[in-house]
Amino acid sequence: MSNVRRDFADDLLAFLPVGLSLAECRQPMSGFVEVVAKVAERRAVDARGLTVRARLHLPRVARSDGTVGRRVALAEVIRSARHLSADIAAIRGLVPSGEIRGLDDLRFVVYDDDKAFAVFSHLHYLRSARPGSLNFALVDRSSGLPVALCSATPLDWRRLGGVLERRFGVPPREVWDISRVYSFQVAPHSAISRLLAQVRRWFRRERRDASLLVTTVDPNMGFTGTSYRAANWQEWLRVRPRPYLYLNRQYISPRQLRQQFGTTNKDELRERLGVRLEISRAALLDSSIYCWRIRGATETVPSSELHRLRR
Predict the structure, then answer these.
(1) Which domain holds residue 234?
(2) What is the value of pTM for the model shown?
(3) Three-state DSSP class for residue 212
(4) Strand-pair category, 245-247 with 175-183
C-alpha cells in the first residue's frame, strides 16, 4: 500500500467486513464497491474498470472457501489501480475526455485494428486483444475518439461450435464470437447495446456467410448480460468454470499461456514456472453463452433446458 497513505487505507478497511467473500465483492452495492470507488477517485481512474480488474485478481488471493482477508483485498484493489493508471497513461491519445451528451453524438465505424489492439491490450480487463478480429466502435463525432468498442472473431472453440450445430443447426463456420467489448467512462447509457445492434446490421449487410453472433458473459466479474439482453440476445448455454491462472501476480488466459509456452498443461507449466504461476482455489460461477441470430428472430431457451458446456 506504498502509494496510498496509511491513514486513508485504514479508513477504507472500515468498509470491508471481516470474512469478506468473493460473492459479496460481486454485488453491485457493497462495501467492496465503495472502497474501489474511493481508490479510483484518489488515483483518477475509472471506478467501473477498476472494479472489474480487482474482481479478476481477487481469486488469486482468496481462500478455498471463497473468503479473502480485508487487507489482502484492499492491497489487490490498490495494486490494480496502479496498473490501470499506467495503462491509461500508455494510450492517453486514444482516451476520450470530453462530454458525450447522448448516442446521437456517436458514429458507428469499422475501427482501426492497431488502435483497437492498443485499447484492448491496455484497458480491457483481460489486457489482451484477439488476433484475426474485426473491430468496431462508436466514435465521438467531434474528436473521432472511440467511446465503445468490440471485436468480432471467427469462432475457434470447437466444443461450442459442435453444440451450436447439433442443438441449433448453426454450422461453426457461420459463427462469429464477440470476443472483446469495452466502453470508456464517458460512454452514454445504452452505448454497448447500440454498438452491438450496429455490428449485427453490418454483418447482415456485409457477410452473407455469417448467421450467428455469440459472446461469453462471466458473472464472476459482476457482469449480468444486461446490455446483451437489451439488444435481444438470448442465453443459449452455460459454461462450467475453470480456475483462473496468474503469472507474476497478473491474470493470464489459457490462450495466452499456449501462445507463450506452447501448453496449457498445469503440471508442465508449474514445473517450468514454479511459484510464478498461481491457480485460484475458490469455487467460481458458471459463465453464460449469449447468442443472436444475424437474420431473423433469436429463439429463447428455458433456463431448465440450458446445456452446461465443459471447457
Answers:
(1) 96-244+280-309
(2) 0.92
(3) strand
(4) unpaired
